[in-house]
Amino acid sequence: MSILPTKNELGFYEIRLESIGGLGANLAGKMLAEAGVLGLGLNGSNFSSYGSEKKGSPVKSFIRFCDATTDIRAHSPIEEPHVIGVFHEALYKTVNVSSGLKSDGIILVNSARVFDEVKRDLNLQHGTLAIVDALKIAVKEKTRVNTAMLGALFRICDFLDPEAIRNVIKRTFEKKYPQLVEANIRTFDRGYEEVVFKKYETPQDTHQNTFSRPLSSLGFATQTIGGVLTTQGNSMEKDLGGSRQGYIPKFDKESCINCASCDTVCPDLCFVWDKRVNKRGKQIMTLQGIDYQYCKGCLKCIEACPTSALSTIQEKQGFTHDNKVSQNFPYISGGIS
Ligand code: SF4
Ligand code: SF4
Question: In sequence order, what are the beta bridge partners of 108?
Answer without folding.
Answer: 85, 130
